[in-house]
Specification:
By secondary structure, the protein is mainly α. The chain is built from 15 helices and no strands. α1 packs parallel to α12, α5 packs parallel to α7 and α10 packs parallel to α14. The longest helix is centred in the middle third of the chain and has 34 residues. It is globular. The two termini are 29 Å apart.
């Protein structure tokens, strides 16, 4: 069967899948240990802050990373230096702002927030590291990209465990670990790309000039990540305990979604270069979705055994949440791949429109649903959002191909 697929694309799929699965396991291990070692209420707060951190990552990117992948893979290098410069500027600025806001929360609300102060370092350097790693992705060097990501996750986990056993408070140990790992990753990838960075066209474009190109990619990524606010909404409406249950489920399955995101990442440059032809779009979507759904299916059947073993009995109520989410994420995988296909053929504005509409509907409905229905209805809402997003992506891609 694989003979009918482009070998180059399959090779990139293989490296992306292998590396992202291992990286996902490492990140999930860190989240599981944090949930197990920290108090349930405190973990609910940490999960909310991490969800906001992911949203800030998408906010400060301004579409620069995805746009750079698309342009570099197509051989257009003119804007790369300016994109890198603006990425560094915004990452540093918002990193400092995040730490300042966290300090104010610690001063005015609870001293527990002081333990989250390293969040600024994490946001600043992980954002810059991800941008530079995208150079390898654009060049179809997914083996290097996945190794760099794996190194960061492994270092983060090792540091977290080491700091915990050195009697550092568990939340502070986790935040320090992800911050230091992000810094180390940035320094590593910057060193590896030092010659390529020096060779980039030094002509500078203002952010206003670039934003007209990157805006659709930014809207797409920002609204795709906006759904992470659901953890914060559940925490505010139902309290930190239910927020912890919803949060631990989201944080455990979130690393698994890296598998589907890696498939989507490989598809974008492959479509831009023409390695995947128009009549093959849906074939590759089914193939990528099938591969990325394997961990979700495993989670569905093993969650009742895995949760008590890994998280402890205090998280037994997470089992039905994980079972429902694991099925819903299959639709999320398919929509992620379709979104990259659409971006690769120039339908990035449609992708942005889909994410704006679907995410807005989800967030608006989640508030009353969580208030009157409770946590399980909030989970059902999330799965419906995944299905709605997929259907809208398929509709617009099919119409775009017919018109194109």
């Amino acid at each position: 069967m694989l003979k009918t697929f482009n070998k180059k694309v399959i090779n990139n799929f293989g490296w992306a899948l292998l590396g992202r699965v291992f990286a996902a396991i490492l990140q999930a291990t860190g989240i599981i240990l944090l949930a197990r070692w920290e108090e349930v209420e405190n973990f609910g707060i940490v999960a909310s802050m991490l969800a906001l951190g992911v949203l800030v990552h998408a906010l400060i990117d301004f579409g620069l990373t995805t746009y750079s992948v698309k342009e570099r893979s197509a051989g257009n290098m003119a804007h790369l230096y300016s994109c890198m410069s603006h990425n560094r500027k915004f990452a540093t600025l918002f990193g400092l702002l995040s730490s300042f806001i966290t300090f104010l929360l610690g001063y005015y609300i609870s001293s527990f927030f002081y333990l989250l102060l390293p969040v600024g370092v994490w946001i600043a350097y992980e954002r810059q590291s991800d941008f530079l790693i995208s150079f390898f992705i654009a060049d179809s060097k997914n083996k290097i990209a996945t190794k760099l990501l794996t190194h960061r996750r492994l270092l983060s986990l090792v540091l977290f465990i080491a700091l915990y056993f050195l009697s550092v408070q568990v939340t502070l140990a986790y935040m320090l670990a992800i911050a230091l790992a992000a810094l180390a990753s940035y320094l590593q990838v910057k060193y590896l790309l030092s010659n390529e960075i020096a060779a980039l066209n030094q002509k500078f474009f203002t952010f206003k000039e670039l934003f007209s190109h990157t805006f659709p990619f930014w809207i797409n990524s920002f609204f795709a990540q906006l759904r992470n606010v659901d953890v914060v909404i559940v925490t505010v409406i139902l309290g930190p305990v239910f927020g912890a249950l919803f949060g631990v489920a989201n944080r455990v399955v979130s690393p698994l979604s890296m598998v589907s995101s890696s498939m989507a990442t490989v598809v974008l440059p492959s479509v831009s270069k023409g390695d995947i032809r128009k009549h093959e779009f849906y074939k590759y979507t089914v193939f990528a979705t099938a591969l990325s759904s394997i961990p979700y299916i495993c989670l569905f059947f093993l969650s009742s055994l895995a949760v008590p073993l890994l998280l402890g009995e205090k998280y037994n109520d997470v089992v039905p949440i994980l079972e429902v989410l694991s099925l819903g994420l299959i639709f999320f995988s398919a929509s992620s791949v379709l979104g990259s296909v659409m971006q690769g053929v120039g339908l990035q504005k449609r992708v942005a429109q889909v994410n704006v509409m679907a995410t807005s509907i989800y967030i608006l409905f989640l508030i009353p649903v969580a208030y009157w229905g409770g946590i399980m209805y909030a989970v059902y809402s999330l799965c419906i959002f995944f299905i709605l997003r997929l259907l809208m992506m398929a509709f617009y891609l099919n119409r775009g191909l017919k018109n194109g």
